[in-house]
Amino acid sequence: MLSFTLTPRCSLSFLGNHPSGLAALFARGAASGIAALLLSASSYAFYKWYRLSHVPGPFWTPYSLFKLLSRGRMYEDLPALDRKYGPLVRIGPNIVMYSDPETFGRVVGVRSPYTKGSFYSSVAIPPLVSNVFSVTDAEEHKALRAKLAGGYSGREHGGFEPAIDTIVATFISLIESRYISAPGASRPFDMAKRAQFFSLDVVSAVSHGRPFGFLRRDEDLHGFLADTDMYWPLLALVVCIPGLTGLFSRWPFRLAMPLVDDESGAGAVFGFVRDSVTERLGSGKRGEDMLQSFIDAGMSRYELEQELYVETLAGSDTVATAIRMTLLCLLTSPATYAKLQSELDAAAAAGAISRRAGVPAAVPPATGLMTKVVPPGGDTVQGYELPGGTELAVNIVGLMHRRDIFGEDADVFRPERWLEGGGDGARVRRMVSAVDMVFGGGRNTCPGRTIALIEINKLIPELLRRYDMAIVRPEKPMRLFHGVFWVTNDFFVRFTRRETGQGP
Ligand code: HEM
Predict the structure, then answer these.
(1) Is the pLDDT confidence value at 4 over 50?
(2) Does the beta carbon of 132 sit less than 6 angstroms from any atom of ligand 1?
(3) % of the chain with per-residue pLDDT over 90
């Protein structure tokens, strides 16, 4: 093993026999250099602090973003920030956060002068290589989105439903074959893992025509989940804290990050995507999937690999979180659960199954900062002057908990609020448009929204119609770490067949 130690021998010995003269000169030079550096660093820090010092925020502002991310309880910290400090909160030297729909509309609007912030460029794979999410140049982004549009619309390859139906059927087969509980025989099913097996299989089936096989093998293939669970908390810090991205893209820090060439974890899944692209381009055969639409739109091999991989990352954890949280909310609200189940039964009996499930407003699955940069001339947001270059982040969790939109009981899972007053009118329209913001807006609206909603709206009703579900450990339904990414584990659910015999 190599070890490097600094010994007194290596101190100023190269100055030879004149230590008092040259060494003193050197030491004085070094001391003034350090003093100058410290002075300019502290002036810069003061300048950074001063230019946004009028925006309220925790007194530990320089560290608040770090604290938010590392505590892992953003789902409760973000609404609390909003309620304590008001509509605009400073969470970092150059980052302020808003939580109102009006600012959201203005900032993300199609003609908005705001540009993508540092959060985006840090999501390049590998760092510093662009894809539709990470690219910050507006024209480049527009061109990429145009190439992706046909594939994401589903129009060019027969839509997403057939592939999603197949994966839902695989999910049901898995439960039927191994996880039906009965009196005296409990067979807990870890929904935390399986929800993501489901979303990963769907995303690979719709994007390149073959599911990864997580559900069929009922196994965390290549340790993908174990790998991402381990990396998400670190990755959250790296992508959200400006400065860390640059650091972690350099040797030796970059060795701490997942690499696309790794043989296990996220790297192995990237390998699977790359093989699919190589095979398709090499064979010359056409497919009925998004990959084919992207090829037809003229994307290069390199672009195809990047976009399919981004799609895998963007479309798996988010959908899995939506499924887990929707189920958690339903399973802990027995009256709502029973009502939904009987509505689904009635609709099925009438041959008109409706898509009632959805993303519960209070638990948005994509909670990245999605910072946008204030244009050079500056802007006024919620009455605060913001200088050009300030990064403006959306507090999407805070937005989903706003009492002026969702009512005084905004923190409570109570879907009946959507039906009150006839389920229409200005109040409901405002809630609907707020909830839609979980998918972003304007130029950056999530292109996978349709796919996500089909997945959620197919799987959840199917489970409710076929089974009675119960949480195995009511005192601790799941383990959760929420620092931008949701790391969810041990959500054990018990399935029993329904006595009414609903289902296929
Ligand atoms: C419930 C599930 C999902 C939620 C809540 C969600 C939310 C979001 C949000 C908030 C953004 C960023 C908007 C912004 O930059 O301001 C985004 C971008 C994106 N999403 Fe989703 N997403 C979901 C599912 C999916 C799925 C299933 C896919 C793919 C199959 C997908 C692919 C993407 C891509 C490629 C982008 C980058 C778009 C761009 O920057 O132009 N997402 N999503």
Answers:
(1) no
(2) yes
(3) 62
* 7: in domain: no
DSSP string, 203-217: HHHHHHSS---HHHH
Any known ligand binding at 240?
no
Question: CATH code at 341?
Answer: 1.10.630.10
Q: Which residues contact 242 (CB under 8 A, 6 or more apart)?
A: 92, 94, 95, 118, 391
Residue nearest to atom 35 of ligand 1 (CA): 311
| CA distance to 117, 192, 306, per residue, from 134 (Å) | 10, 28, 11
Please say whether the beta carbons of 444 and 116 come within 8 A.
yes
The average pLDDT across 450-472 equals 95
pLDDT tens digits, 156-193: 888 999 999 999 999 999 999 999 999 999 999 999 99
Would 1 be classed as within a structural domain?
A: no
Specify the residue with its C-alpha closest to ligand 1, atom 3.
318
Distance of CA 451 to the CA centre of its chain: 16
Burial environment of residue 30 by CB neighbours within 10 A (0 to 12, 13 to 18, 19 or more): exposed
* Residue 101 lies inside a defined structural domain of this protein: yes
Q: Which domain holds residue 196?
A: 52-497
Render pLDDT for 47-98 as a digit per residue (tens, 0 to 9).
667 789 999 999 777 678 898 899 999 999 999 998 999 999 999 999 999 9
Its pTM stands at 0.88
**One-letter identity of residue 217:** R
5: pLDDT strictly greater than 80: no
At 381, is the secondary structure helix, strand, or coil? Answer: strand
Please provide the average confidence, as pLDDT, over all residues in the chain: 86
Alpha-carbon torsion angle 431, 441, 447, 195, nearest 10:
-50
Query: Is the beta carbon of 145 within 6 A of some atom in ligand 1?
Result: yes
Alpha helix (H) residue ranges in 209-300: 214-217, 224-240, 244-248, 265-283, 290-296
Structural domain includes residue 251: yes
> With a 6 A CB cut-off, is 444 part of the ligand 1 pocket?
yes
Give me the number of domains the chain comprises: 1
CA–CA gap between residue 389 and residue 370 (Å, rounded):
15
| Residue 488: pLDDT over 90 | yes
Residue 6: predicted pLDDT: 28
Q: Is 61 in the pocket of ligand 1 (CB under 6 A)?
A: no
What is the best residue among 446, 457, 486 to mutate for testing ligand 1's pocket, by most ligand atoms within 8 Å of CB? Answer: 446
